[in-house]
Amino acid sequence: MSNKEATIFGIYPVQEAVLSKTVIDKIYIQKGIINSTIDSITKELESKDTSINFVPIEKLNRLTRGNHQGIVAITSPISFHSLERIVESTIEQKEKPLFLILDQISDVRNFGAIIRTAECTGVDAIIIQKKGGAPITGDTVKTSAGAIFNLPICKVDHIKDAIFYLQASGIETIAATEKTETSIYQTDFNKPLAIIMGSEGKGVSKSILNLVDHKAALPLKGETNSLNVSVACGAFLYEIIRQRSL
Prior knowledge:
Blueprint: E1 7-9, H1 11-19, E2 24-30, H2 36-46, E3 51-55, H3 57-63, E4 71-75, H4 83-93, E5 98-103, H5 108-120, E6 125-129, H6 138-143, E7 153-156, H7 159-168, E8 172-176, E9 193-198, H8 206-209, E10 214-216, H9 229-245
Parallel strand pairs: 2-3, 5-6, 5-9, 6-7, 8-9, 8-10
Antiparallel strand pairs: 1-4, 2-4
Helix pairs in contact: 1-2, 5-9
């Protein structure tokens, strides 16, 4: 499997990539364009784990210097997994599954670092949203030190739906957020869990915070009011290991 993403542009090259079952992570389509082939490509990808984005032509011009014809695709170096199948199989095999939900992580290197730590700490799968988050690029693969090939990643239409599904499956959800007085050291992680980490700038979104079962914060003793998300994620995951090892 290649560890690099590729940019494909032009109507027929993108169509050929879709027909050949190339895994496409994101596709960018010029707003307002009218083309039957592009329409058929879009319909084909709607049923797959592909982020479809309608953007101004200036965005496409920045993505490639060639004649994009109103469409640019970014391939993925990995294949994605079905959330339902992963959750079902994990629950059958493990008493205390551990899932990690990333709410709009935007930096590919943070993403890769989180994947690396998650794989090292025994996370069963990472769950991301199709739109809004960082793409899986060669930099993601490199920063993960190859861990991305050993850890299932599930793409969902909406993080909220994933949370509802996990909760219905007996998995408690805990959001990492500074908007709580409860520290991670006061939180019980010794049960089936899904940890939610938020974006670099905004943290876990308010709508997600309203849905989770619990919230937990890392104590901060200095003047800086937040940690890098990959560092915070590591602290959470190793506290889970500590509690489950007692």
